[in-house]
Amino acid sequence: MKLQNKIALITGGARGIGAATAEKFASEGASIILADLNEEDVQKTAEELKAKGYQAEGRAVNVTNKDDVEALVQGVQSDYGQIDALVNNAGITSDAQLLKMTEEQWDQVIDVNLKGVFLVSQAAAQAMKAQEHGVILNASSVVGEYGNFGQTNYAATKFGVNGMTKTWAKELGRYNIRVNSVAPGFILTPMTEEMPEKVLNMMKEKSVLNDLGRPEDIANAYCFLASDEARFITGTVLNVDGGVVM
């Protein structure tokens, strides 16, 4: 198994891509710590994984709160002795065109998608430096490469995540820490499933494969990058988008 005996911390792990990533990692032998703002949801997902025979637990955390984040990472270190992989999956959207976007909408998305990634990565990188190995994986988006109408705040965070990924890869490589991002395209999630068929078809047409991705597609990419098979890959933004960006 690709991740046998690895300890993986996944933020935003209660649902969607985060939950799919947790199950994929667990199926490859990793012990999973799911972190999410919603304690009820994250505990439910952890219990579902344990019912399948996997090693998993859920912990409530606000990734925008430094004290919360430091307590989370210190707790994982204390309980498991190491953190082999961090997946910064936690993220939100709050869309509006530039002329209508409120300061509150801007601040909320920047806090979670950018500050949250910074805080969790900083704390985890300290642990990884001490143990002299680790992998940090960040959730980017194709929006972080070409922008998107009505998503000034979200696009800014994903461009920022790509910049942090490349910067951290340069800074942390000396400690045997690899840092990469995965940039999903249009992914079929419970939220997108509720969209009108016309919108879904338009999203499909943007892909040269004329299809939408699934959470498992992103989970598979994270799993590869977390494994030793990707030992010589760092500072990369991997598009998993069906050819939306080429």
TrEMBL record:
It is an enzyme of class 1 (oxidoreductase). NADP(+) binds at residues 12-15, 62-63, 89, 154-158, 187. InterPro entries: 3oxo_ACP_reduc (IPR011284), KR_dom (IPR057326), NAD(P)-bd_dom_sf (IPR036291), Sc_DH/Rdtase_CS (IPR020904), SDR_fam (IPR002347). Residues 6-190 form the Ketoreductase domain. Keywords: Fatty acid biosynthesis, Fatty acid metabolism, Lipid biosynthesis, Lipid metabolism, NADP, Oxidoreductase. Pathway: Lipid metabolism; fatty acid biosynthesis. It catalyses: a (3R)-hydroxyacyl-[ACP] + NADP(+) = a 3-oxoacyl-[ACP] + NADPH + H(+). SMART domains: PKS_KR. Its EC number is 1.1.1.100. One of its GO terms (biological process) is fatty acid biosynthetic process. It comes from the Bacteria. The keyword NADP applies. The active site is at residue 154. One of its GO terms (molecular function) is NAD binding. Belongs to the short-chain dehydrogenases/reductases (SDR) family. PANTHER family: (3R)-3-HYDROXYACYL-COA DEHYDROGENASE, SHORT-CHAIN DEHYDROGENASES/REDUCTASES FAMILY MEMBER. NCBIfam families: 3oxo_ACP_reduc, PRK05653.1-3, PRK07231.1, PRK12826.1-2. Catalyzes the NADPH-dependent reduction of beta-ketoacyl-ACP substrates to beta-hydroxyacyl-ACP products, the first reductive step in the elongation cycle of fatty acid biosynthesis. Homotetramer. This is 3-oxoacyl-[acyl-carrier-protein] reductase. It comes from Salsuginibacillus halophilus.
